[in-house]
Design a protein that fits this description.
4 domains, seven-stranded parallel sheet, single chain, Rossmann fold
């Protein structure tokens, strides 16, 4: 034990030496006390975690877990503060670093800028690689079929693609279908010539999801090394790069979706860094939520037909019950759709369709009695059907192994089942979560139903989701992790870590330490927060928006260089755009009017030419946007960024909190808003030379007690209050 403690100290010291050496070797480096403080915490955390297998039966101590939650203000240089010591420690300990981010922008910054620069300065060489989900890469077999360059195997091309895609192609005008075929053909030619690497994100103009989805690589239809195109597979080429890399950059979605799948390094034997960690709780809820379509069910018959035909070819005995399971599933889904409409139809039909699918949430997660038996039958039938499909898949893989010369035919058969099997798995998971009954005092799942019109069809769907991300993360992620650093510029809420720790599943975890590293910026001297009040109450949306837009137009008319306006709803942004005077329309760039990269490029060009340029954006422009200097001298926040009031998971959670005597507004809404607001305000000051103004038109920021809590979580700008214009 003494020897191990000595090793920890040596590892930590060596890691800090590497960090210091890199900082000193960096041209134009500036010593930052906060950055060094963060590097010290990273070194301590990762040197004290026990990695790999521990044989407790032989008398070894139980493994030591070590987790640090570090808020590093803008300008600290957190990527260097965690990369340099973490990589040095990984090399010393013979392990790897797994860095997970929330955005593609940060992934690309790490892989294309930060890590290459670090590799050039560190004394020990290391390799790094980018890990993306399989669906970001093209499947060559699918692409060839859609491009018309592949041969159809036994069934029509549509049988390898989603039912909705086949239907959409049938409805699509002929010229659109021809344009798609040409698009896929060009893509296939570019891939075969080596002019494209098969990564969706590296295309000059990434295609829309409905165009990309039919050619995306998916695990359920992939036969891996048995595929005839395996030697040319982009996804597996990228996987090979991961094997030899000491540093892997992934994202939170991939991290959570691949738990236990051996896609990424084992979490008990690597050093895990979660950057942009404030996104982790919401990603967890998205990952473990599920839904099923109760109306569009013809895929079940197609899956059953394929299972029977392929299973018979392979002499799989388990297929005998497929007809029974298939018929039971179809009948039960029809029954469920009818019962849902009987119980909730009036509420669903009364909601305006202009606002998206109509929705009704199940209070307290307690399903009506008449839904329980059909859902139980659905879960049982789905499980039996899945067992049969697993037997077929196992037989197919064995056949591929024994008959490599028939790989193409067998891969096509595998894909015919694999393209539809995930729907059956999702149906099974949704039924199980809907049936989950929370014991007295336990936390219920959120459960809700939606109704929407798709052409001539009324589509009813059932949804379910956990409501506490912390519980989900504690059970699925932290139980496997030994050493981790979670970092972001916004992890405290209203001045405290408690909210994030609860959301992330680390509250009360003895292995977790927290550290707040302040920004090196002098906010009081560099920026001003202008609380521009309105007469109208922000809760009165119509009156407030009219008055706010007048004040906003008055203020942005005085913008000399770059500015960013952040809205809380599309309707709010639409009204502001409609109110723009003719002379100002050429100055404003509106989110989604252009692809994000083009919009930002045009903004930079205008400002570089000495022209004013104002970006109108929403939540996705409120974080991760780096516009230093004149590119963003003013940030305008039209309204406090409270979460939408109709989120069913948020509603269910608030309902549960009230039921146990707690206040959801104070405990959930205000802290979440504080983190979001801090991110929005953080767009203003990006360097030590920046000067900027932040305008907020919501008087609740200075007029309410919770507004004062929100202010405590913001940088210490000079505060000005402005009366209504």
């Amino acid at each position: 034990m003494r020897h191990y403690c000595m090793s920890q100290q040596v590892w930590a010291a060596q890691a800090l030496e590497s960090f210091d050496a890199v900082v000193q070797a960096t041209e134009g480096f500036r010593s930052r006390a906060g950055q060094r403080l963060m590097a010290e915490q990273v070194a301590r955390t990762f040197s004290s975690a026990t990695l790999g297998k521990v044989d407790e039966e032989s008398g070894e101590d139980a493994p030591t877990r070590s987790i640090a939650v570090i808020q590093a203000g803008t300008g600290v240089g957190k990527s260097l503060a965690y990369c340099a010591p973490a990589i040095a420690l990984a090399l010393s300990r013979g392990t790897r670093v797994l860095i997970s981010t929330a955005t593609v922008a940060l992934q690309e910054q790490l892989v294309n800028k930060d890590l290459p620069a670090l590799a050039a300065l560190m004394p020990q060489p290391f390799k790094f690689a980018l890990a993306k989900g399989r669906g970001r890469y093209v499947c060559k077999l699918k692409l060839d079929r859609l491009a018309g360059t592949g041969e159809a195997e036994e069934e029509a091309d549509d049988d390898l693609f989603a039912e909705e895609e086949a239907a959409a192609r049938a409805k699509r005008p002929r010229h659109e279908t021809e344009a798609r075929i040409q698009f896929y053909s060009t893509m296939a030619q570019t891939l075969s010539k080596g002019a494209w690497d098969g990564d969706r994100d590296s295309l000059d103009t990434p295609p829309e999801p409905e165009v990309w989805s039919p050619v995306a690589a998916e695990g359920a239809s992939c036969t891996g090394k048995h595929c005839p195109a395996f030697s040319q597979c982009t996804y597996y080429d990228k996987r090979k790069e991961l094997v030899g890399a000491q540093v892997i950059v992934a994202n939170h979605d991939l991290l959570l979706s691949s738990l236990g799948a051996r896609v990424l390094p084992e979490l008990d034997n690597c050093l895990l860094v979660l950057d942009e960690a404030h996104h982790l709780p919401s990603t967890a809820l998205d990952q473990f939520a599920c839904s099923m379509d109760l109306s569009r069910i013809t895929w079940i018959e197609r899956l059953a037909s394929r299972g029977l035909r392929i299973g018979a070819l392979l002499e799989v005995e388990e297929i005998a019950d497929i007809p029974k399971h298939s018929a039971q599933l179809r009948q039960t889904l029809q029954d469920l759709a009818r019962i849902v409409m009987d119980v909730y139809g009036a509420q669903l039909k009364s909601q305006p369709s202009a606002w998206g699918p109509a929705r009704v949430r199940v209070p307290r997660g307690e399903l009506p009695e008449q839904l329980i038996a059909p859902l139980g039958l659905l879960a049982a039938s789905a499980e039996g059907f899945l067992d049969a499909l697993r037997a077929i898949s196992k037989a197919l893989r064995a056949e591929m192994r024994d008959k490599p010369d028939e790989a193409k035919r067998l891969s096509t058969l595998y894909a015919q089942i694999g393209m539809l099997a995930p729907r059956l798995e999702e149906l099974h998971a949704t039924a199980q979560l809907l049936l989950q009954d929370a014991p007295e005092g336990a936390v219920p799942a959120a459960k809700w139903f939606t109704l929407e019109v798709d052409g001539d069809f009324i589509v009813v769907k059932a949804h379910a989701s956990p409501i506490l991300p912390g519980t989900t993360l504690r059970n699925h992620l932290w139980s496997a992790v030994r050493g981790a650093v979670l970092t972001s510029a916004t992890l405290t809420s209203c001045g405290h870590f408690d909210f994030f720790l609860r959301e992330a599943g680390l509250h009360g975890d003895e292995a977790t330490t927290t550290l707040e590293v302040p920004s090196p910026f002098n906010y009081a001297a560099q920026g001003t927060l202008i609380a521009a009040e309105t007469r109208a109450d922000p809760k009165n949306a119509a009156q407030f928006t009219t008055e706010m837009v007048d004040a906003l137009l008055h203020d942005i008319a005085r913008v000399e260089y770059g500015a960013l306006v952040l809205f809380t709803s599309r309707e709010q942004m639409r009204q502001a755009v409609d109110a723009l005077p003719t002379a100002m329309r050429s100055v404003v760039l509106v989110q989604n009017a252009l692809p994000r990269t083009q919009l930002l490029r045009r903004h930079r060009e205008r400002v570089d030419n000495g022209e004013p340029s104002v970006i109108f954006g929403m939540q996705s422009f409120g974080e991760g946007l780096d516009l230093p200097g004149r590119l963003c001298e003013s940030v305008f926040i039209t309204k406090l960024p409270f979460a939408p009031p109709d989120d069913p998971v948020g509603e269910a959670r608030a309902e549960w909190l009230r039921a146990v005597g707690r206040d959801p507004f104070s405990e959930l809404v205000v802290p979440a808003t504080a983190i979001r607001l801090a991110q929005w305000v953080g767009r203003a000051i990006r360097t030590e030379e920046d000067q900027a103004h932040v305008y907020c038109y919501d008087k609740r920021l200075v007029r309410t007690s919770y507004g004062q809590r929100l202010l405590k979580g913001l940088p210490p700008f000079a505060l000005e209050q402005r009366a209504p214009l």
